[in-house]
Amino acid sequence: MADVKKVVLAYSGGLDTSVILKWLQDTYNCEVVTFTADLGQGEEVEPARAKAQAMGVKEIYIDDLREEFVRDFVFPMFRANTVYEGEYLLGTSIARPLIAKRLIEIANETGADAISHGATGKGNDQVRFELGAYALKPGVKVIAPWREWDLLSREKLMDYAEKHGIPIERHGKKKSPYSMDANLLHISYEGGVLEDTWTEHEEDMWRWSVSPENAPDQATYIELTYRNGDIVAIDGVEMTPATVLAELNRIGGANGIGRLDIVENRYVGMKSRGCYETPGGTIMLKAHRAIESITLDREVAHLKDELMPKYASLIYTGYWWSPERLMLQKMIDASQVNVNGVVRLKLYKGNVIVVGRKSDDSLFDANIATFEEDGGAYNQADAAGFIKLNALRMRIAANKGRGML
Q: Dihedral (C-alpha) 236, 240, 243, 244: value to the nearest 10 degrees?
């Protein structure tokens, strides 16, 4: 890549990306454009500007992407009730296609030849960033320093920073032993004691939630209003997508909701233990299934459940911009036209309990479902023929002596 003249770097201002910035300048003798995304990670992003300026960066992008993140990525994912390997709500995975999209947009705006990121050669993020980048700009060059340099430990990174005069803040408080990633949907924790799958995670690790044991002894009730499969109001108060998720994080965290400790299968082939804190997303998943339970046709709901693992895998492995994900999304979105109404939830000590759901588009008919007299709305005698026809193939097999294994 000797011909690289300008690179757009996904830049946080922390140790890794600060070293990458200097390394790119020295190794490629190129101009670096920095891009810092505010995805609701809860940390100040503006200090990254001063750090980049101190290192001679002339084009600096600091973008508030919270609304776009929830509206165009998180909400569409939750319309599908998406869960990876039965538990993970994909908080890190779903942020990567947005970052890739913005990297490419900035590259086009600034005339950059390449993009760069701080993902390691062991993880999923390198795949997610780069698949997204190539889908949106096929000829873009990608520089992944962790796959090129020999600075493979924190000590080496610190030595490099000191040698090259890179300003790195040293906090008086003890540094977290975990590798963490945060956005409006979740916080992830990896490394430290979590690398031993038998060791229990430490209580003081969690940032957003109280432990279920210490959650209030009184339940919290909330009502979520849905329109076309998305939450538009909490307790009758209309909110933007990002505000909805932030408020659900606050309420859920206060009630000990959303903690998860799992071992997942990374796309690159290894198993990895991680802890995830997703209070708002945990509430959203439960509530969305509740409103769908009264508004979706049975076969539509079942088909969505069958396709969901494939959809989840596409997001986890970085194929958000693939034609197959886009095709699935059109089908999922079409299913949500009548997913409107209100869900009432009871939050108590880590539990999300559905206690009510209502909709003008409800397919639930109490006159038919009742255990009391239904006034002729349903002829129970019809069930006999239905059962016999469905049993026909098994009866034929049994008569031939093939009814049992």
A: 50
